[in-house]
Fold this protein.
Amino acid sequence: MIFQLAIASLFARALTVGMTILAIALSVALFLGVEKVRTGAKASFADTISGTDLIVGARSGSVQLLLYSVFRIGNATNNVTWQSYQDIAARPEVDWIVPISLGDSHRQFRVMGTRKAFFDHYKYRQGRSLEVSDGLIMDDLFDTVVGANVAATLNYSVGDPIVVAHGLASFSQHKDQPFRVSGILKKTGTPVDRTVIVSMEAVEAIHVDWQGGAQVQGQATPVDEIRQMNLQPSAITAALVGVKSPLQTFRLQRAINEYSQEPLLAVLPGVALQELWGIVGIAETALLVVSFMVVVTALIGMMATIFSSLNERRREMAIFRAMGARPMTILSMLVLEAMLMAALGALLGMALLYVGLVIAQPILDIAFGLWLPIDPPNMREVWVVLAVIAAGAIVSMVPALRAYRLSVADGMMVKT
Amino acid sequence: MTATVLQLSDISYRWMGNTGFSLGVTDLSVAKGESVLLLGESGSGKSTLLSLICGTILPSGGTVHIAGQDITTLSAGRRDKFRAEKIGVIFQQFNLLPFGTVCDNILLPLRFAPERRKRAQDPIAQAAHLCTALGLPKGVLTSKATALSVGQQQRVAVARALIGQPPIIIADEPTSALDANSQAAFLDLLFAQTAENDTALLMVSHDPRLGERFDRVIQMEDVAQIQRGTT
């Protein structure tokens, strides 16, 4: 009955109570949302590459190499010569090696030149392979395989022609050699979804008539002639390497890092990811702290509402006292009320989070390639809700103790 | 002479702080089923006396016996429970919890008094019976307390004080918010019900015209001595 009365009392003050609950709900939604994006981003980063033992590129930073080779964020400062690539490929520790050539783009998407072996060895989300949802892996020199988001955004289907632009966000397009979509990949939740994949040779082919980033005037080699040319690349951007035995990883890494003909860098994807978390971690913590403070602010707001309601409710408390309620009962009623508000706020916040996720999921995917899964609440989120309720109880102790003292002093008589 | 339900002996109470005021009551008793009007001006210590009887404050000396129990020997928690069990309280006004229904309000004291709840047997039926007896409209139990007129609210307060038949009802100027006609009707109903339940009634008022309807009228200044101590 006390519970019923507490609910009735909350209903009687529906407007202020509603506002308080809304404030708590928004703060909880924000907190859980930040948490969701944080863990989602982390998981999606960690899921992007698996099964690759080493990433090799020109010497720069390990995080930079990881970012441009796997996540297509930023650019390589230098290339790896074809000679170096072959030297590494010839080493006894190497099980497989896949070259990657970046630098061209198609609309807003990056073009990656590679070998067919890429589809055999590139693994994501604990060892899953890339699969085509339609068409075939490229066969011809001018065949391309496009990621799921590329196909969806540009409305491509198998057989459609594609024109590749030189450089990123460039207007000089390689109009002479139209590519063809030969296959569309299934959605992976990785940067591959936003990549146009062509063969290494194709990247060479489109640059046949180009020198120093500009087309040579009046020169246009016919497609048939290009097909007859030796299209072996002179340099690549990076290479993914698998070793025969995990024990050899470090030996191979050291050998590549000490390669004397050219300054190279080999990184373990997992180690580079850890380094990346180290950098992102500070911003992540800051974001989490800010959203935590928002929750605290909402709870303090609730405390203020309860405080301001105390004066008008002294009469109520006197009635309860006259009916035989102890001051302790008054205190527990106020705490119960606060816990109800906090619980409703937290649950509403959770609901808001899911509504937000449903709305934001496709937007985040297209804009940032970040796929946030919509899962039922995990233990962590349940703990957050419980913590908010507990925190609500704790902050409400302040006005509740004041009510306790007032009701001891007032007894049944309110001196106004 | 029937048994007394209320007996105050040699009470002294000193107000908190340095006011230097103190209240003394040598002897005040109410017999079982008796109705007593306690007349006094405001500031004569009526409220303090009621608080002493209800046990929300403790005297520095003397005893307060209610239904045979000296409540000054009980702990604060026990006094609260004892009040719930033995005393029905009616205020001047604003008796009811505005967010509760009439039924919630009437049953409220039973929440804190298990024995009184047992005595009420079927509390909702008894609440309905009391409402009818007090002339409240049918179906009033489920309406919100705030939907009632002041006179009706006061009658609901009577029903609440009577439910589970406590031995004594303490009423603090329950008619002051009512006009003359309503006052008379209210008192008729109140007396009919206290008589039916054999409940003693101690009413505090400043209005001597009510006196003729009570078994006994006591002037506050006859039983209580206010001392204005010099500091």
About this structure: The interface with chain A takes residues 47, 50-51, 54, 56-57, 76-77, 80-81, 83-85, 89, 91, 94-100, 104, 107-109, 111-113, 160 of chain B (CB under 8 Å). The beta strands of chain B are 4-14, 21-31, 35-39, 61-66, 69-70, 87-90, 168-172, 200-205, 216-219, 224-228. DSSP finds eight helices and ten strands in chain B. Chain B has one domain: 4-228.
